Amino acid sequence: MASRNDVATSPGAEKTGRDSARVEISGLTKRFLTPAGEVFTALQDVSFTVEPGQFCAVVGPTGCGKSTTLSMVSGLDRPSEGSVKVGGREVDSVTKGVSFMFQSDALLPWKTVLGNVLMGPVFRRVPKQQAQASARDWLRRVGLSGFEDRYPHQLSGGMRKRVAMAAALINEPRILIMDEPFGALDVQTKAIMSTELLGLWEQIRPSVIFITHDLDEAVALADRVVVMTSSPGSVKAVFDIDLPRPRGSVQEIRFQPRFIELQHQIWDSLREEVERAYARTAGGTA
Ligand SMILES: Nc1ncnc2c1ncn2[C@@H]1O[C@H](COP(=O)(O)OP(=O)(O)OP(=O)(O)O)[C@@H](O)[C@H]1O
């Protein structure tokens, strides 16, 4: 059935509205040339779709190509074969409307908290007063009112993450790419930040691709979990997470029977890939 978001588009044209946030990865293969001159296949025929406004977590053993996949969604690298489409348009340069969050904070140390959050609007040439008001509003939303004039080194790890989150979301991205954003945080701060992320995501609903090694985090946050195989990475399984939204506290949801059931199912799928990757890096014969 056609929805009001459906738009007539010519082949290859970018869609507008909600559909502009659909990410379609099909038959994605990526090969690198190693320093020894050999061809190394990092990704082999990876296909999955992130629907508009969907929160998609990607889990897989170390070195399976998760970050490589993201670099092709963002347009920072090109596939060897296959395609990535964002909003129906093949990605062939840096994708517009995408915000990032990485494990490292990526804050500019010489800029204040306010200055860091202002970077996006300034880059987009938003008028100064409007940009300042928006940055202060986002700092309020992430609980950092009163910290506008601090520098990143004067903040805790969790506070720096809040600044990074405000800096990513102030651009109201259609797609939010997150590569282990809370990986360096202690367990409690991570849970608090995850709950805060969910609350903010529910306000603006970008499509999210979220890479993590933490299966609990993936199940608690996502609508869909993609499990990748060990290298060369391909899609092993896709799990739809039918836990109701809003999810509330990430800490609490972990005790729900359905959460535990999904966590076990996904771990069953992931475990042998993790073991295989470990055996390979440990010099075993996987
Ligand atoms: N530019 C490159 N040249 C050669 N090999 C590369 C390059 N970039 C990545 N690789 C290799 O591709 C594979 C996938 O790397 P990638 O960083 O995408 O894995 P990952 O799943 O994100 O790993 P992790 O979970 O440890 O962060 C690795 O074996 C890596 O060494």
Biggest beta sheet attributes: 6 strands, mixed
Describe the oligomeric state of these chains in a short phrase: single chain
The count of domains is 2
- Terminal-residue CA separation: 47 Å
Q: Beta fraction of the residues?
A: 15-25%
Bound compounds, each kind once, are: adenosine-5'-triphosphate
**CATH homolog superfamily of the largest domain:** P-loop containing nucleotide triphosphate hydrolases
CATH C-level label of the largest domain: Alpha Beta
Strand arrangement in the largest pleated sheet: 6-7-8-3-9-10
Radius of gyration: 19 Å
Briefly note the structural class of the backbone.
alpha/beta
Question: Which CATH architecture of the largest domain is right?
Answer: 3-Layer(aba) Sandwich
CATH topology of the largest domain: Rossmann fold
Order of helices and strands: EEEHEEEHHHEHEHEEHH
